[in-house]
Every structure is written in C-alpha cells, then in structure tokens.
TrEMBL record:
Domain Enoyl reductase (ER): residue ranges: 14-325
Superkingdom of source: Bacteria
Pfam families associated with the record: ADH_N, ADH_zinc_N
Name by which UniProt lists this protein: Oxidoreductase
GO molecular function, one term: acryloyl-CoA reductase (NADPH) activity
Alphabetized InterPro entries for the sequence: Acrylyl-CoA_reductase_AcuI, ADH-like_C, ADH-like_N, ER, GroES-like_sf, NAD(P)-bd_dom_sf, Zn-ADH-like_protein
Organism listed in the record: Methylobacterium durans
NCBIfam families associated with the record: oxido_YhdH (TIGR02823)
CDD domains in the cross-refs: MDR_yhdh (cd08288)
Lineage start: Bacteria, Pseudomonadati, Pseudomonadota, Alphaproteobacteria, Hyphomicrobiales
Signal sequence interval, chain numbering: none
C-alpha cells in the first residue's frame, strides 16, 4: 500500500484537529492527474483552514494547502504527461478537494497550468496564490484603463503576501506606490520592493466618511472592512479599487457616495475559479514582469513539517511577504 506524508485536518467531537501523518494514496480524491508536489506556500486562507478560525474546510478529512508546484507522475489528461512541471492555485484545493500540504496530489488536469517559462517551481510558489491574485488585481486596474499618469496607487496590507507582490508589480509598471502598513519596522522592506511612500494603516482605520480628500487613482486592497471603506472615500474621481481580501474583516461599511459622486469603481477579484485563458495570461505576465530579486527578497522558506507553526502567525499579520513550503 502506497502512502505519503501529509498534514491532515480532521473533525471530531472536540472540534478540528491537525496532524502530520501518513496518508494512503488510495484515499486521494478523483482526478485525472497525479502530481508529486515539490513546493507549496502559506496563504491567509491556509491559516484559516489549519486553525479552523473560519469554515474554509468543507470536507473532512482534508489535506490543507491551496496551491502547489510539482511534477506530473501519472496523467489521463491529454495536455499533461509524466515529467511535466505544473502549477495549481485555487479550484477549492485545500478546501473541498484534498490539498497541497502533502507529497502527492490528485487533481483535474483542467485546473493546472504548465510551470511558466522563466520560473522555477520554487519561484512559482514564492508567487503562489497571493502573488497571482496581486497580478489579477493589476490586470483589473489595467483593464479599467488606469495608468501611472493618473496618480498614485495605494496597496493595503502591504507587508503581507498579496501586498508585497502588488507593491513590486505596480512599482515595476511605473506607478508611484503608496504602501499602507501597520508595521513601522517594514518601511525599509517596502521601499526595497519599490514603495515611494509609506502610509500608517491607522490613517485608514477611522470611521469612514462618505467622501474624503482624494489621494490615489488606483488601489489594491487585501484588507476589506473599514480600511476598504476609507480607501474608496479617498480614491480620486474615475479611479478604481481592486478588492481581493478580508484581513481586517468581511464587512464593508461604506456608502454609495464614492461611486455616484466620483465615479469610483470597485473591482472584485476572485482567484479561485479564474478561467484558463486569464489564468495563463496572469502567469505569463508574472514570469515577465515580476523582478525575481524582489521576489527573493520577500520570500522565506520552511519545510513541510514546519508549516503548521505559522498558521496563527499569518492570521495575526505577523508573517512578512511570502512563505514557500518546501515539500520535496
Ligand atoms: P497576509 O497575512 O500575508 O497579508 C495580510 C496583510 O494585511 C498583513 O500582512 C497586514 O499587513 C494586513 N493586516 C492584517 N490584519 C489586519 C487588520 N486587522 N487590519 C488591517 N490590516 C491588517 O495574507 P495574504 O496576502 O495571503 O492574503 C491577504 C488577503 O487577501 C486575505 O484576506 C486573503 O484571504 C485574501 N486573498 C484573496 C484571494 C482572492 O481570490 N480574492 C486570493 C488570495 C488572498 P501590514 O502589517 O503591512 O499592515
């Protein structure tokens, strides 16, 4: 009987538990491609899944881990053959489908993308779901017609995973980047990624007014809640905010004022079920446009057996940038 090492979330009478144990390959879920996972990452959602702080796990037992890179072992999918290097983000992996914190994963070939040319498996996961989502945000702002000459771009939750990649991508695209953070200690780090200004996140935490002084033309928000409401109230006329996260909260205590009096647009970003053409476009742009030295500067690497120690840390906003999980 073939087994492999995996983190497993189980639900019992005492609530949710997380153990690192052998998992029987025969218990993997349905899929036409089996992958030897080499790298995964730590995302905010993985923190929620491992701790059970939010019900992201919808099936038990569950192997958490929402993204991976690896090598195809067996495939019945026409696009993939053994030995191919692949990347997966989203599609409910680590939530409804057995996930990435394991030496093996079996998934639908339609969910995979080939490892983008120019990126190693480790670099693809240094980007991971968070970095890929930052690119989807940038693409949404581009699609809206916004350009650096329209004014500054704000990034909230800037020291986190989405935020760090967003700062680097916007700076590289020529934007004057304002990085909002709650951590003074990360100012130098953020300037190193390309931030031109640092904004204390406390300035975005007060009770939001319907409208406030116009400060940026574009924003990428990983935080939600009161912060997003303030960001909208401070966005310049005809600007746009790409909203992807809820690190502060799910609520949005705003009014229609920014939309109807300033023509501000709120662009929703969902990375989980992005169709293939857009997915491949995003990965292609990441491979071409993300400065790999900056990616290295924002990346920490841990072993598979250590990832659970970081679950509470990421939820508390104490991790910086991106964390790669080395599986093999
Ligand atoms: P991280 O924890 O790495 O980053 C979140 C950052 O938000 C923190 O580093 C911190 O930055 C800031 N933050 C944390 N708590 C608070 C708070 N209470 N108030 C204000 N700011 C806070 O997470 P990720 O980058 O992995 O994910 C960011 C968000 O985006 C998450 O909510 C995640 O679920 C979401 N997401 C959504 C996706 C989608 O498809 N829509 C895909 C990927 C992520 P600082 O210390 O600099 O202030």
């Amino acid at each position: 009987m073939a087994t492999f090492r995996a983190w497993v979330v189980e639900k019992g009478e005492g609530g949710q538990s997380l153990t690192f144990r052998d998992f029987d390959e025969a218990d993997l879920m349905e899929g036409d491609v089996t992958v030897r996972v080499t790298h995964s990452t730590l995302n905010y959602k993985d923190g929620l899944a491992m701790t059970g702080k939010s019900p992201v796990v919808r099936r038990f037992p569950m192997i958490p881990g929402i993204d991976f890179s690896g090598i195809v072992e067996t495939s019945e999918h026409p696009a993939y053959k053994p030995g191919d290097a692949v990347v997966l983000t989203g599609w409910g992996v680590g939530e409804t489908h057995l996930g990435a914190y394991a030496e093996r994963a079996r998934v639908k070939g339609d969910w995979l993308v080939p490892l983008p040319e120019g990126l190693s498996a480790a670099q693809a996961m240094a980007i991971g779901t968070a970095g890929y989502t930052a690119m989807l945000c940038l693409m949404a702002l581009d699609h809206h017609g916004l350009k650096p000459e329209h004014g500054p771009a704000l990034v909230t939750g800037a020291s986190g995973g989405v935020g760090s990649v967003a700062v680097a991508l916007l700076a590289r695209a020529g934007w004057h980047v304002i990085a909002s953070t709650g951590r003074d200690s990360e100012a130098e780090y953020l300037r190193g990624l390309g931030a031109a200004e640092i904004l204390d996140r406390a300035e975005l935490s007060g009770t939001p007014k319907p409208l406030a002084k116009e400060r940026w033309a574009a924003a990428i928000d990983a935080v939600g809640s009161t912060t997003l409401a303030n960001v909208l109230a401070m966005t310049r006329a005809d600007g746009a905010v790409a909203a992807c996260g809820l690190a502060q909260g799910m609520d949005l205590p705003t009014s229609v004022a920014p939309f109807i009096l300033r023509g501000v647009s709120l662009l929703g970003i969902n990375s989980v079920t992005t169709p293939q053409p857009k997915r491949r476009e995003a990965w292609g742009r990441l491979a071409r446009e993300l400065d790999l030295d900056k990616l290295a500067a924002m990346t920490t690497t841990v072993g598979l057996s250590d990832v659970a120690d970081l679950a509470e840390e990421i939820l508390a906003g104490r991790t910086r940038g991106r964390t790669v999980v080395e599986v093999a």
